[in-house]
Write a structure and sequence with these properties.
Layout: E1 12-15, E2 18-25, E3 28-33, E4 48-52, E5 57-60, H1 63-67, E6 73-82, E7 93-96, E8 104-110, E9 115-122, E10 134-136, E11 147-154, E12 159-165, E13 168-174, E14 192-194, E15 206-215, H2 221-228, E16 249-253, E17 265-266, E18 276-279, E19 286-287
Antiparallel strand pairs: 1-2, 2-3, 4-15, 4-19, 5-14, 5-18, 6-11, 6-15, 7-8, 7-14, 8-9, 9-10, 11-12, 12-13, 15-16, 17-18
């Protein structure tokens, strides 16, 4: 069986003729103009990142750093296309707080070729394996096309954990009490893992991941539909239509569109600058297979 962990934090906004990054600071907002970024360019999604299922993966600083130690709400979004039949324990995103696997978290972790668990968390604050929710997702071959996956955590509401696949609700987990996610346990030192859910190559997935994004707020169903955009990624740094949470961006990794000069990293498009470090990967892993 497998185990898992979640978190993150930052903001990015475009203005006319300039690129602006914003971050909340003690309830206020700090805004700086980044003149090194390209300005006035039209948003496009050209690249995704391919993982070989053997030893390729990425890591980002801890969830505690990105989303805070004990977040009361957050949203995680990514686009996923598998290049293998899903298998037990495969996951595009997760973390391990320490080398002790007792403290793990994973998002969208497969427990069979046709099911995955939207959030799997073990012994982390108030969220335990008891809130795992298995979702039947269809035939294994269906995962070999692009899908948009979103998980919303919102403490103190009826459905505290809500998950979406292509803007359609997959699962609502009702708790009835407070769900506490404490990312500071054991120092919160575990990296956010991309392409697997903990620090073992046994969980490495084979396939493409694109537009990994985190917000420090709970997106509404209407916002999830807006950013799904009928199956085409959109500019998350700008409020548009029902999407009004650009100022709550905590991390946004475009998986290649800002990193054509190879440096073994994926840029965080927010002011927090929590770049993703790529491990055992190469330039050719930036591929033009995109949603």
């Amino acid at each position: 069986m497998f185990q898992i962990v979640p978190s993150l934090m930052a903001v990015a906004l475009f203005c006319s003729g300039c690129f602006v990054k914003t971050r909340k600071v003690s309830g206020t907002s700090a805004t700086v103009t980044d003149t090194s970024s390209s300005s006035g360019t039209t948003f496009s999604n050209t690249y995704s990142l391919y993982f070989d299922g053997v030893d390729e993966h990425g890591w980002i600083t801890s969830f505690a750093t990105v989303l805070g130690n004990t977040p009361t709400q957050f949203t995680i979004s990514l686009w996923l296309k598998m290049d293998e039949d899903p298998a037990n324990g495969k996951s595009p995103l997760g973390a391990q707080l320490t080398t002790n696997s007792t403290y793990d978290t994973a998002f969208f972790v497969f427990n069979s070729a046709t099911q995955f668990i939207t959030l799997f968390n073990t012994a982390l604050g108030g969220v335990s394996s008891a809130v795992m929710d298995s979702v039947t997702t269809g035939a294994a071959a269906d995962h070999k096309t692009w899908h948009h996956l979103v998980l919303v955590f919102e403490d103190g509401v009826g459905a505290e954990i809500r998950s979406y696949r292509d803007a359609t609700v997959m699962a609502n987990i009702f708790d009835g009490g407070d769900q506490t996610l404490d990312f500071s346990r054991n120092g919160g030192s575990g990296h956010i893992e991309v392409g697997r859910y903990n620090n073992s190559d046994a969980q490495n997935m084979m396939g493409w991941i694109d537009e990994v994004t985190m917000w420090d707020t709970a997106l509404t169903a209407a916002e999830v539909t807006e950013i799904y955009n009928s199956g085409t990624p959109t500019d998350l740094s700008i409020d548009s239509g029902d999407y009004v949470s650009s100022a709550n961006l905590a991390g946004w990794w475009r998986m290649g569109d800002s990193d054509l000069t190879w440096a073994n990293t994926v840029t965080d498009e927010t002011i927090n600058n929590n770049s993703m470090t790529l491990v055992n990967m190469e330039t050719g892993d930036f591929q033009t297979d995109v949603p």
